[in-house]
Design goal:
heterodimer, A: mainly alpha, 2 domains, 11 helices, B: mainly alpha, two-stranded antiparallel ribbon, 2% strand, globular
Chain lengths: 303, 474
């Protein structure tokens, strides 16, 4: 490995640790959130360096982007709290415990380098039959499609759970003309890039979750700029969008069980098309769910 | 297998339709639970006739794909889940204070049913992680239904449940890195007692014990289960904590290498005894009625943990029959107890145990349900709880060296008798009875009595049940 690459990797690793510490031990919540977002972005870089572009995309879009926005919007609802001085004993105890866990985990992880890994070869050998040419998409939407179906349900439950809390609406800050102008330019871009990532997913890194997160980012921006009406669960079309991913997935699965070879078993020549169809529906659902989580409200309060 | 899948899909499809069309009537969920119960019953029949069935999802064999396995235990659990949901749904539809009217209670209960069915059927470590996430989220969402007071316990539950999920996931990642497969049977063939496997099992055990509220990781349970709406408390105590227990049992009885199970078994068994005593003591002391019932869950899970520990320590797979009999008997009894307690609490207008004074006069049927269910928890013959305890005690009494464990079971029984009789004795104090705020609802009380009768009926049914359960554990 060239020295410059090594230097980059070491810098990334050290920065990650510092940012993680800042996110956990920052005295103010706001500092913690900003450190967390920066941590997510750097982590995405680390995944890219490790040769996992799918993870990098997901981490940047969901881990750093949407989680960050969710945390910031939670902070917005939260009353200001006085900065808490960190106690030295607590920091020391955390450090000690952290080092202990680290040693235990290292002892468990280090021998894994020689472990047998039959699956990557197996996935590649069956790639032809899966209907897509990117191994990650093949695993997510064909070999282990049941996991992905249940993950879509997890997202649906997150939306439902937040709905039960019945968060009160809050006054919006005045709309800033520059924000409106910018979001008019950025929102179509998010649609194009999201669509591209979705399409790319069948043969290269990308896919429904990343595309959905990008679309949601566009929706959130438009909503914050006051260019979209209220996103309410009571709106039937929005509910349809949230549910369409799971519903379509289940329909395909059940149709396979009823007419075809079995549960979640795609017909041989249709698997590519079906996977793309499911991915489109899942992208819409993910985008709608994430937007509802961030900017969904029951009613708007006056300023 | 098609029938078992139908038993999973019916509640799931119903929940999605109810969300889409904003249907607010419980009739749909009752119908779906009934259909699911029928399918599960037929699936059980199929398994008894034809033996264990497996399904490679999507036609992909393991290790590439996910495997479903329908054993007789899984079929029994599917029937049990559907039956509990049916009973609770009828109660929630009828009861005046079930928080089901203007909330998402119905779709959430459908999703809970489907998540549990998915968990019972799956035999894949990562797929279990996803089902655990589903269970945790749906449980938290349902606790919140009872209003802002439940927010704090629900949030604590959510955070602990997430931490537990992460522990479990890290363990799965370690096992995957070590063996390269995620399927339970493939792992069982490959597993060795090395450092990575130990660490992975430790992490997964901590996560699962936290989620199943097994002592000493049970502290979130009493607040969370007692602050939920009555119908939800019943579902949580009867079903949700049993899901992680199922995974824990399979993991230790199948995957863990033999030289690890002995020492771990001892720890599990000791924790079980302590759970019996500590849970029983806390239930005896608490001033609040639903908290008492919730602590009794902590105590009763001790029996399951004890059975698991002894099963691992002595490598006696018959003890898993005792474990699952405890789960079934406790589930039914706990539905009855929570429904009766919730009904009495709402009608008498106080959350305190003391308000049950004279309840045998004011709400006789509900109090009777509570006492009958309590009888099964204590293990009075011929209830389901007694059958379970009998199966557990048989190998303990055979050899004098095992008698200390039997003493532990005896002490646990004493503790449960103490907290049940604390309530029952109070309810016979008719001199100064608490007047009900409004007319007691006889139908809801009879509904609460139904599962209590079922758990006593379990004893009549115990021979085939033990046979099915022992087939699954072999």
């Amino acid at each position: 490995m060239p020295a410059t690459e090594l230097l980059l990797d070491i810098t990334l690793g050290v920065l990650l640790l510092i940012l993680a510490g800042a996110a956990l031990h920052g005295t103010r919540l706001y500092t913690g959130i900003i450190s967390f977002i920066a941590f997510g972005l750097l982590l995405a870089l680390v995944w890219a360096r490790l040769g996992a572009p799918d993870l990098a995309l997901a981490e940047a879009a969901i881990g750093a982007g949407l989680t960050g926005v969710l945390l910031l919007s939670a902070l917005g609802r939260h009353a200001d709290e006085p900065a808490q001085p960190g106690s030295a004993v607590r920091t020391l105890a955390t450090l000690l415990l952290g080092v202990l866990v680290l040693i235990l985990l290292l002892r468990a992880v280090l021998p894994l380098a020689q472990g047998p890994q039959p699956l990557p070869a197996l996935v590649n050998s069956q790639l032809e039959a899966s209907g897509v040419s990117h191994p990650v998409t093949a695993v997510l939407l064909n070999f282990r499609a049941w996991d992905t179906l249940l993950e879509l349900l997890v997202l649906l439950l997150a939306v439902l759970g937040v709905r039960q809390l019945q968060p009160a609406g809050r006054p919006r800050p005045g709309v800033w003309p520059l924000l409106q102008a910018w979001s008019r330019i950025l929102a179509p871009l998010s649609v194009i890039i999201g669509g591209y990532l979705l399409w790319r997913g069948s043969h290269a890194p990308g896919g429904a979750f990343q595309a959905g997160a990008l679309l949601a980012a566009g929706v959130v921006m438009l909503r914050l700029a006051g260019l979209l009406p209220l996103l309410r669960w009571e709106n039937g079309l929005l509910r349809l969008l949230v549910l369409v991913g799971v519903a379509l997935f289940l329909t395909v699965a059940a149709a396979g069980a009823w007419f075809g070879a079995g549960w979640l078993n795609y017909p041989a020549h249709w698997s590519g098309a079906l996977i793309v169809l499911i991915e489109v529906a899942a992208t819409l659902s993910i985008a709608a769910s994430l937007s509802l989580l961030v900017v969904g409200e029951r009613q708007e309060l006056g300023r | 297998m098609t029938l078992a899948l139908a038993s999973l899909l019916l509640p799931l499809g119903t929940a999605l339709l109810m969300l889409l069309l904003r249907l607010r009537s419980g009739i749909w969920v009752i119908a779906a639970s009934l259909g699911s119960l029928l399918c599960a019953g037929l699936a059980l029949h199929e398994v008894i006739e034809q033996g264990v069935q497996t399904l490679a999802i999507g036609g992909w064999r393991t290790p590439l794909g996910i495997r479903f396995e329908l054993s007789s235990l899984t079929a029994v659990l599917l029937v049990f889940t559907a039956m509990t949901h049916l009973l609770v749904a009828i109660y929630a539809q009828h009861s005046r204070h079930s928080h089901a009217r203007n909330t998402d209670y119905w779709p959430l209960s459908g999703l809970l049913h489907a998540s549990l069915a998915a968990l019972w059927l799956s035999r894949d470590l990562f797929n279990w992680y996803v089902t655990l996430e589903l269970l945790g989220l749906v449980a938290v969402a349902m606790i919140i239904l009872s209003g802002p007071r439940a927010h704090a316990p629900a949030l604590r539950y959510l955070l602990l449940s997430l931490a537990a999920s992460l522990c479990y996931l890290l363990g799965v990642a370690l096992l995957y890195g070590r063996y390269g497969v995620l399927d339970l049977d493939l792992l069982a063939q490959a597993s060795e007692a090395d450092h990575s496997t130990r660490m992975a099992l430790l992490l997964m055990t901590v996560g699962l014990m936290l989620k199943a509220a097994l002592w000493p990781l049970h502290l979130w349970l009493p607040a969370a289960h007692s602050s939920a709406p009555t119908a939800v408390s019943a579902l949580l105590s009867a079903l949700v904590v049993k899901g992680p227990l199922f995974i824990l049992w399979l993991l230790w009885s199948r995957v863990a290498p033999v030289d690890m199970t002995e020492s771990a078994g001892l720890l599990f068994a000791l924790a079980g005894i302590v759970a019996l005593l500590a849970g029983g003591w806390a239930a005896l002391r608490t001033p609040l009625l639903k908290t008492l019932v919730a602590y009794s869950t902590v105590a009763q899970l001790g029996y399951a943990l004890l059975a698991l520990g002894l099963l691992l320590r002595w490598q006696q797979s018959e003890l898993s029959v005792a474990l699952w009999l405890f789960v079934l008997a406790h589930g039914l009894a706990k539905v009855s107890m929570f429904l009766a307690a919730g009904e009495m609490q709402a009608t008498l207008g106080s959350k305190r145990v003391a308000s049950l004074k004279g309840a045998t006069q004011t709400m006789p049927v509900a109090m009777f349900a509570f006492a009958v269910a309590g009888g099964s928890l204590i293990g009075l013959p011929p209830s389901g709880g007694f059958v379970a305890k009998w199966v557990l005690l048989q190998p303990l009494l055979l050899e004098p060296i095992h008698w200390p464990w039997a003493l532990g079971v005896l002490l646990g029984t004493l503790a449960s008798a103490a907290y049940v009789f604390r309530v029952v004795a109070l309810s016979f104090d008719r001199a100064d009875a608490t007047p009900p705020d409004y007319d007691p609802d006889p139908f809801a009380q009879w509904l609460a009595l139904l599962p209590a009768i079922a758990v006593w009926g379990l004893a009549l049914f115990s021979q085939p049940l033990i046979l099915w359960l022992s087939e699954a554990s072999g």
